Each structure stands twice: as C-alpha cells, then as structure tokens.
Amino acid sequence: MNYRVVPESMVTAWAGNRLLVFLRDEESTHLLSPEAGLSLSVLVERAGFPLGAGDVARAWPGGAPPPHQGELLQLLEGLARAGIIEQCPRH
Fold first, then answer.
1. pLDDT in tens, 16-62
2. CA angle (5, 42, 49) in 5-degree steps
3. 20 to 30 A Cα–Cα from 43, which one of 10, 25, 54, 69?
4. Is residue 29 a contact partner of residue 42, using CB atoms and an 8 Å limit?
5. Any idea what DSSP says for residue 51?
6. What is d(CA 42, CA 57) in angstroms, rounded to the nearest whole number?
7. Closest of 68, 69, 82, 59 to residue 1, by C-alpha
8. Are 2 and 11 in contact (CB under 8 A)?
C-alpha cells in the first residue's frame, strides 16, 4: 500500500512514539525526526508524494537503524488516520 503527503501540508504529528514534521514545498518533502536530530529529504512528484514503508526505510540515514517494517506500517497508518498522508495507487 502506498501513501502520499496530503498537498499543502505543513504539519507536526505523533506517529507511534515518533514526532514527525512534514514540510512541503514545490520540489521536496522534508521528513524531520527531531528525537534523532535527523532530516530526511525526498524528491516528490508535483501530483503527490508516493510513500511506502520501504521508501522510508531506504531514506533513513546510515547513522540510525531504520524502524522495523511493522513500526513503519503503523507509522504510515497513523499519519493516514490523522489526515497527513493519504492512500494512493501504486505507480
């Protein structure tokens, strides 16, 4: 299942025990993880940001272990329930 960041979002959310901040602009979506002092930047399509658990794991910086697959799925589902991301079809 894929998700994308809801357009024009600039939000802070709790997903599990992780505080996440999404900052959306024309060219990229920045996923900030303050507890680890990390900033993940991922190029996005103008129509939306396809985001799957594997994408987040691949984007996780080398200095920190990526969350377990189950944690990532819970994180994505929580963000979807909060209206920050939405399901989108696979490309």
1. 444 444 444 444 444 544 443 333 333 233 234 444 444 454 445 44
2. 25
3. 69
4. yes
5. B
6. 12
7. 69
8. no
